[in-house]
Here is the input.
Amino acid sequence: MKKAIYAGSFDPITLGHLDIIKRSAKLFDSLVVAVLENPNKCSLFTVEERKKQLELVLGEMENIEVASFSGLLADFAREIGATVAVRGLRNAVDFASEYQMYLINRKLGKEMETVFLAADEDHISLSSTNVKEVAVFGGNIDFMVPQEIKPFIIEKYKK
Here is the structure.
């Protein structure tokens, strides 16, 4: 059974993330969508809020599990038995940084492969940062995020 992991901050989840998740779920027997707790980032949502949002969006998809972790991806992948890391690529800048992470992960865990999935053309400009920049000014984020989490984003910026 091939188990893959798609890790990220998902702060918030975008339609681009969702596209990569759905496509990855078709490629692997089991997919763990893992929210990274990164102390170096100032997040809009807590790790628990992001996990709940992912669970809401992903619903009852058969072969997808939502988890969270802190630390190294290679260590967490080993802990859960994942042998593939899925990474989404929007552009050459993403490729450069993702390739560097791939090389580091190979040094940390030779048993883990990385699969890069190109972003769908409709999602190339999407990022969690862009969502937050539009939302903070009350702009329309309908084309950026799953509708289920839009109210959570709007609520955060009302405060």
